[in-house]
Model the fold of this input.
Amino acid sequence: MNKKIAIIGSGNLGTSLVKGLVESGQYNYSDFILTRRNLSKLQELQELGAELESNNSEAVKKAKIVVLAVLPQKINEVLNELKESLHSEHLIISLVSGVKVKNIQDIIGTNIPIVRAMPNTAIAIRESMTCIATSEPFKIHIPEVEEIFKLVGETIVIIEEQMTSATALCACGIAFFLRAIRAASQGGNEIDFHANEALKMAAQTAKGAASLLLANNSHPEDEIDKVTSPKGCTIAGLNEMEHNGFSSSFIKGITISAKQAKGLYTEE
Done:
């Protein structure tokens, strides 16, 4: 059985997917064919066993699953290059923000299964939140795609109209939470700790907070109530953050990100 996966556009997200799947123990580096304009940046993965291919069409011919991981602005060019090499036995998994199943079909035809997936870069350590969606004719292929992405984190199946919002909340969200951790570490640095100590403390505290919600299936305010006492230091800090627009800024960042994601792909 051919389990080869071609990653078309092996940048940060594509290579993170490869590393996460290999880390799961269900794949080897030799199961992947990687393409990229500058193949020298993939030398490390080649040394580990991955196959590099400068020609996208040739990569597709060798694979059963084709993962599209190029920029939205490049997708039409890539699809036009691939369309003669694709057939109904392929399964396309598109990681491209803002590009609908129909947009892809308009170039390659309607007989090739297409499923969209929106992971984030935590996929490299098998901690991604991956959102999956497709159009009605291809829903039969969702379990196969879920099986892949469950190896590298959590998955949720949504409707395709929600995929742009998923990009903002989950894919861009990695950067948002990292910025919050960075701010916390800077606060720690200002009050008493060396920068490396403050960063470790802030990151582990953030990890603990997220783990509490997931383990207890609880609401953030439930966990917040457990650490806020009357006239205490926690509520004083929270209120100061809110007075300065913490939640409002975070919400606005996500909504603006979603709006921007909608405009990333412009049909040629």
